[in-house]
Amino acid sequence: MSIAIECKNLDIGFRNAESDVTIIAGLDLAIETGEFLTILGPSGCGKSTLLRVIADLLGPLKGTISVLGSDPHLARQSRQIGFVFQDATLLPWRNVRDNIELPTRVGGNARKPLPENRTDALISMLGLEGLGERFPHQLSGGQRQRVAIARALIEEPQLLLMDEPFGALDEITRDRLNNELLAIWRRTGTTILFVTHSIMEAVYLGQRVMVMATNPGRVLGIVDLGEIKTADNACSREDPRIISAMAEMRVALEAAS
Amino acid sequence: MMERPLSRQALIVLPIMGATLILAAWQFLVPLAGIPAYIVPTPTTIAGVFANQWPLLISNLWPTLFESIAGFVIGNSVAVLLAIIFAYSRVMQAAYFPVILFFNTIPILALAPIIILIFGLGMLPKIIIAAVICFFPTLVNMIRGLNSATRNEQELLRILSATPWEIFWQLRFPRSLPMLFSSLRIASTTCVIGAIVGEWIGSDKGLGALIIQATFNYRAGQLYAAIVLSSSMAILLFAIVAYIEKKVIDYT
């Protein structure tokens, strides 16, 4: 297995005029190509900041990071990274189809041509049939997030970064989208980093769960769920082993707070 | 107790009834109160002026309409261009925005004579006054609009390696349009005020000049007719801007 993301002794945070504010110090992490890793932690632990460093929205303070075998900057410019925000971040003046196709319309010379029928394929993959001409305000929260996922997938990126994408949805919609995301992951083989503060969601989606704590931001541990899930990362939410894995994480998170 | 919402018909009929009642009261109460017609004319007298002096009214409407529209276009265009410069250059904004703010605090009635003094008695000073009155609200709204893209929207375009040109046309400019149009709507009526104020101070044609002449000659019917005409013009310009807004911002 090749490595999709590797961090060595990485410090992340923000640069101020006077001094640097470190959020996570000395992070070591290796994520395999095709892996589904969930990052679980309370607000302020730096999990979203980590995604932003990987996406080259924020430079690391110290240490090294490689994304898809190169510098994050090059990985972003080669358009191999899809990003899904907590609010769908759809442009309100573009309809569903035009929002999905946005990545093929911007990026100067770096953008890739849009394969024929690609948008239609994504619309049907994400259950958005018949909504292509609608504007974002005419969609439900779940539908907006489906459009955001379709947009992130349109250029078939090798890496999908998701920052609490289902955090604002009701539980029933969230469960359904969790299943659909797993189906997409199985179909595309995309490496997925999924940030959440829901223990259930972290355990249900991830092959491994990186558990983080705050003050200072740090990694408590990485839990490998391979043994209690099937080879294609499936499990039952009611499986006693899943429930006990969740209980252990809850205890660890409480002990660290 | 909750009041039921009014029906569609009621919402059309009621304002017409309200206006009719006020006009009727005006028509009959003003003579009853002994107010002479050369001070406050009745609605039928004003209607008579429209019927008898239409060529005079219309010949004074055109200059005012032209000055208003020209001032609207020029004032708002300059404001939009300057807002774009300010949105992209903090140095320019820091250097010049306070100066513009200072000029904006000068009342237009104080500024108008200066502009007439510099540019003479033709149409140009009226156009400039109308432009000045449109300028500031649009500048402020446009700067705010251009800066109103959310952090996530900016990050989205950065992940996609968007060029500055693309960020402007795909994000910042469309984001600014709702705020731009809300100031264009205001400007569509204030530009008429600017043109009329300019005509008051120095002109022999236009609705502003007609208002002044009618006032000093006790031609109250003509005065009121000119006022009705200028406010109709402002309403028409407002309706045009609102119509264009609806066509441009078609996604809400």
The amount of helix of chain A comes to 25-40%
Give average pLDDT of chain A, whole number. Answer: 92
Number of helices of chain B: 10
Largest sheet of chain A: 6 strands, mixed
The biggest chain-chain interface is:
A-B, 27 and 20 residues
The oligomeric status of these chains comes to heterodimer
Please estimate the helix content of chain B.
Answer: over 70%
Radius of gyration computed on alpha carbons of chain A: 18 Å
Quick structural overview:
The complex is a heterodimer of chains A (257) and B (252). Chain A has 257 residues and is α/β, with parallel strands linked by helices. Chain A has helices spanning 47-54, 72-77, 96-100, 118-125, 141-153, 171-188, 199-205, 240-256; strands spanning 3-15, 20-32, 36-40, 62-67, 81-84, 159-163, 191-196, 208-213, 218-224.
Description:
The complex is a heterodimer of chains A (257) and B (252). By secondary structure, chain A is α/β, with parallel strands linked by helices. In chain A, the strands form 2 sheets. A 6-stranded mixed beta sheet of chain A has the order 5-6-7-3-8-9, with helices on both faces. Chain A has a 3-stranded antiparallel beta sheet with strand order 2-1-4, with helices on one face. In chain A, helix 7 packs across helix 8. The radius of gyration of chain A is 18 Å and the shape is globular. The relative contact order of chain A is 0.17. Chain B has 10 helices and no strands. The mean pLDDT of chain B is 94. In chain B, 83% of the residues lie in helices and 0% in strands. Chain B is mainly alpha-helical. At the A-B interface, loops of A face helix 7 and helix 8 of B.
Topology:
The complex is a heterodimer of chains A (257) and B (252).
Chain A: E1 3-15, E2 20-32, E3 36-40, H1 47-54, E4 62-67, H2 72-77, E5 81-84, H3 96-100, H4 118-125, H5 141-153, E6 159-163, H6 171-188, E7 191-196, H7 199-205, E8 208-213, E9 218-224, H8 240-256
Parallel strand pairs in A: 3-7, 3-8, 5-6, 6-7
Antiparallel strand pairs in A: 1-2, 1-4, 8-9
Helix pairs in contact in A: 7-8
Chain B: H1 8-32, H2 43-52, H3 54-88, H4 90-105, H5 108-119, H6 123-146, H7 151-159, H8 164-201, H9 207-216, H10 220-248
